[in-house]
Amino acid sequence: MNRFDFIAPHNISEAVAAAAEPGSAYLAAGTNLLDLMKIGVSRPVRLIDITRLPGLDRIEWQPDGGVRIGAMVRNSDLAYDPRFARTFPAVAEALLSGASAQLRNAATIGGNLMQRTRCAYFQDTASACNRRVPGSGCDALHGENRLHAVVGWSEHCIATHPSDFCVPLAALDAVVELEGPQGKREIPLEDFHRLPGETPEQETALAPAELIVALRLPAEAARFAANARYLKLRERTSYAFAVVSAAAALEINDGVISHARLALGAIAAKPWRAREAEASLAGAEPTLEAFTRAAGFALADARPSGDNAFKIELARRIAVRALILAAEGTPEVMPALPASPFSTTPGASHVA
Amino acid sequence: MSLDAPSTNARYGSNAGQPLTRRDGVLKVTGRATYAADNHPDGMLYAVTAVSRIARGRVTSLDVEATKAHPGVVEVMTPASRPPLAHDPDEKMPPFGFRIEVLQDSTVRYANQPIALVIAETLEAATEGAALLNPQYDADEPRTGIDDGLRFDPPAVGVGGPPKAAFGDVEAGLAKAAQVLERDYVTPAQYHNAMEPHAVVAEWDGDHVMLDMPNQALAMSCASYATYFGIPPENVTIRSPFLGGGFGSKAIINGPQILAILAARALKRPVKLVLSRAQMYGPVGHRGGTWQKLRIGLNNDGQLTALHHKSISATSSFDDFLEPAANASTHLYASPALLSEHEGIRLDTGTPGPMRAPGEASGSAALEVAIDEAADACGMDPLDFRLHNYAETEPGSGRPFSSKALRECYAEGAKRFGWAGRPLASRQMRDKNGFLVGWGMGTALFPCPHFPAEARATLRADGTALVETAGADMGQGAWTALAQIAAEALGLDPEQVELHSGISTLPDGGIAGGSGHTASAGLALNNAGKDAIAQLSELATNDPASPLFGAGNIGVEARAGRLYRRDDETRSESYAEILARAGRREIVGTAKASRDPAAAEAHAMFSHGAVFAEVKVDPDLGQIRVTRLVGAFAAGRIINPRLVESQYFGGMIWGVSFALHEEAIIDHRTGRIMNADLAEYHVPINADIPSLEAILIPENDPFVNAIGVKGVGEIGITGTVGAIANAIWHATGVRVRKFPVRLEDIIG
Ligand SMILES: Cc1cc2nc3c(=O)[nH]c(=O)nc-3n(C[C@H](O)[C@H](O)[C@H](O)COP(=O)(O)OP(=O)(O)OC[C@H]3O[C@@H](n4cnc5c(N)ncnc54)[C@H](O)[C@@H]3O)c2cc1C
Ligand code: SF4
């Protein structure tokens, strides 16, 4: 790890001012940033500690029923907030399916949005990686890319965004509030992460020194509370990143879907909102046929970026399954194995 | 199990056989047990290795100046500056030592090989110093795949084992078979991920060196280090009170530690080196990959007519450790003809080494799936098929087994699991949630090696005892089980016995490997205890003032701190009284123990077991969960059922890991391992192991050694891997012959 300055600002404007110096990085819980610093992928010259900034650790309910979540709220605190979990159950389920209990207790909302790809070549400084070193090439393209992207990728980068949390957020029209040298602005979560195109190093819409201060979920997203699931396929029962995942949310009236939301995770450099699929479900009955058709729309443009054609089929299937589970209804209590296909296994009582 | 439940295995009316809790348990759960890296002698420096990012070629330059300029960096050791060693690192170190990479030249033989050592005042400075070296390479094409490596006929496999075993005429057996099954299996390279990484704190005092390091073979390691540093073995002291897991990798000398010890000598200050997790994927041994082929001849009665098991086992380009995988077939099933053989393949990786059940694990994985396939081909239940091919005596030699309660393991395991009624065909069972359910089984087998060991038992004036042997507690509970054995020999309660171990200045406790530590060090302690009691009896029976006077011929018995006349319970005396009257402060018993060669010659010695697995598989998504594992094992006399159960659990969990998770993912273009961290190199987590049961089958073995102890540390992996793969087939109809089993294998 290189030598760096450590700055503890007292308020947001101090933080933003400090971050304006080139080579700065915001430090939240550090569960991603410090790992990357230890392996030499990130080498900031100054760390700006935002963990002590006042006012960023609150969950605030809006008069209209929407919610505003401070960037420093811990993943666990949000997932276990009773009103939040009741109102946005798929988001809580996604949070609880991520990482481990220890990591969730530390990791922040802002950090989760900003976490970097898990592409092994991104993490290996001896590999060519356009995302890490623009123009250097992409060693994943013809390398070990079994888990890489199947939609939205380019020859320049085939990485995926690993967040679970962001998948239902994209489905539910979450909005990110930012504050930077230019002042405040907000941006839909769906536009927050970028597809690689020719500039994979531009991972998000965040401008230099901009700070995520909060995240909002609109009141209308609460209409899905009774029929919302997040489902995540993993290579072990817990504590693993998704191979593919899906957030499905339905509003069903008199046996007909009035509104549907679907987003897929771990298949692209951003959470993949499937608007065509959603449209195909509006007005349909919640049947396997309808769900299968919708999943087909969701992956219509998918193509393998390498040794990962199986992910396309898996993504299709997990979309169908998530829709089926959503139609069956949000579970009364959080499943013991959140987001797991095995969450229905009786007997277990802990969150793994 | 209840803590104070009397064991059916207890002999001599002793404490052994009781499920005592670990003596060091409280120290460990309160953080007071100190591991090697917890040592911080005054003036200590930190060493960090810089490692190669190519797998084959040469380092052409290192920016030593940049590193030295970094604040806190004290020294940089490179091939140009590395002080000499007294032993050529390109020569093997007998008996088990490998060639090691200690900056002897600029050659790179594998990715993650040390190419320099940076020593600094802080860990951070050393780490950054290593990063600043900015190595330049002249890289050659790496050979890390099955198609790239040089093949060769190995003179030996494992640690000096025979590369080939044969009896009968395999080709004739196959020719006359009603059907022949020919199958290929692949097991990946797996890397050591003990919770405690390799570490050393080295401190020199003149030409004596003190090494705090986790170590599974204290005496052997002292001798090896002494040879490297040109000093007498007694000048090397290794302290290894606790190991955070060994699994075979801490029994072998590795390059990084040698470099740190060299640095400590050169700089005349203590030096600490702790490998990072990623650095474990190279210089400290791993389970080499295998490509195995099995050919099985079957007659119309479902019996083997021939068994041919060949393993192509990977090793490094510069040294030999080949997974003796095919040997897993040589002692298990009855067959009139057998050929097990190995071919080596040289890859640009670190040299593999022993890793929990080396050979047995990979070989059993292939064999047990093949046997399942054979049972299916014969239309037989897998358990019936195994019973049908049960080896009553050692296949080939016809020697009797010293003991073999495998039938009981099959029966008891099947009963507890509920095996009866299992449908023969695959894809027959579903649970209420619609998951596919499958049941599979495998036989477990592990040999019973015995290492020479020494011990000392001192009976003290107060009637308590101190027993000593330089053994290793890697978490398995040796401190507890060994004390129980000693206490039994001494006729004392375990609380009256103080055990000193884990430091090389004590009598040689042998090697903690091959599942042979309890037997080896235990036998030495037993014999030392008996020696002390014999001396005490001698004192008492020759002393006219003792109630035991004259009992020399009849004999006395040691029990609860007293000697009793064998034919007259009313005549007894406490140890303390005997010692006091004789004016002795203590009596010291000693022993050098090894296995009786005649018994070993006459018998085949193995632990056995049967593992039953239930898996559930999501029919659409392919996700697999091992919902139940039941293992029944027979391993001679059980000294401490609590600890043994835990060993079986650990082994079976590793079986899950082998079957479903572990794999080093190598980019063959560069030879680098792309998942050298615990986020991506998966091992099971708690949620992967919902239900685990280990059954301890009683077994009396009068031949294996005087204490009747076999080994339990490794056998749990064997059998389990196959059982899981077979259960997956039973659930899904998909026969996966490449480990670990992946989602895409299941969904097709
Ligand atoms: C072993 C392991 C397993 C994991 N498994 C999962 C998983 O299954 N699913 C999943 O979703 N995640 C997983 N994670 C990732 C985890 O969710 C993230 O590491 C965590 O959310 C990051 O939050 P943090 O507060 O620690 O961020 P930090 O590490 O502190 O920061 C991460 C990045 O975000 C930037 N940043 C942080 N806060 C802000 C802000 N307010 N404004 C602007 N920039 C900011 C930092 O500068 C940095 O670049 C795993 C992580 C690990 C280590
Ligand atoms: S896929 Fe993207 S992150 Fe991975 S190596 Fe290629 S450019 Fe880098």
From TrEMBL, chain A:
Short name of any one Pfam family annotated for the protein: CO_deh_flav_C
GO MF terms held by the record: FAD binding; oxidoreductase activity
Keyword annotations from UniProtKB, A to Z: FAD, Flavoprotein
Origin superkingdom: Bacteria
InterPro entries in the record: CO_DH_flav_C, CO_DH_flav_C_dom_sf, Diverse_Substr_Oxidored, FAD-bd_PCMH, FAD-bd_PCMH-like_sf, FAD-bd_PCMH_sub1, FAD-bd_PCMH_sub2, Mopterin_DH_FAD-bd
Annotated Gene3D superfamilies: 3.30.465.10, CO dehydrogenase flavoprotein, C-terminal domain, Uridine Diphospho-n-acetylenolpyruvylglucosamine Reductase, domain 2
PANTHER family named in the record: XANTHINE DEHYDROGENASE FAD-BINDING SUBUNIT XDHB-RELATED (PTHR42659:SF9), XANTHINE DEHYDROGENASE SUBUNIT C-RELATED (PTHR42659)
Protein name listed in UniProt: Molybdopterin dehydrogenase
Lineage of the organism: Bacteria, Pseudomonadati, Pseudomonadota, Alphaproteobacteria, Hyphomicrobiales
UniProtKB/TrEMBL annotation, chain B:
SUPFAM superfamilies registered for this protein in UniProt: CO dehydrogenase molybdoprotein N-domain-like (SSF54665), Molybdenum cofactor-binding domain (SSF56003)
Domain Aldehyde oxidase/xanthine dehydrogenase a/b hammerhead, chain residue ranges per copy: 30-141
GO molecular function: iron ion binding; oxidoreductase activity
SMART domains given in the database record: Ald_Xan_dh_C
Polar residues bias spans: 1-18
InterPro entries assigned to the protein according to its UniProt record, in alphabetical order: Ald_Oxase/Xan_DH_a/b, Ald_Oxase/Xan_DH_a/b_sf, Ald_Oxase/xanthine_DH-like, AldOxase/xan_DH_MoCoBD1, AldOxase/xan_DH_MoCoBD2, AldOxase/xan_DH_Mopterin-bd_sf
Protein name (Swiss-Prot/TrEMBL): Dehydrogenase
Species in which this protein is naturally found: Pseudorhizobium pelagicum
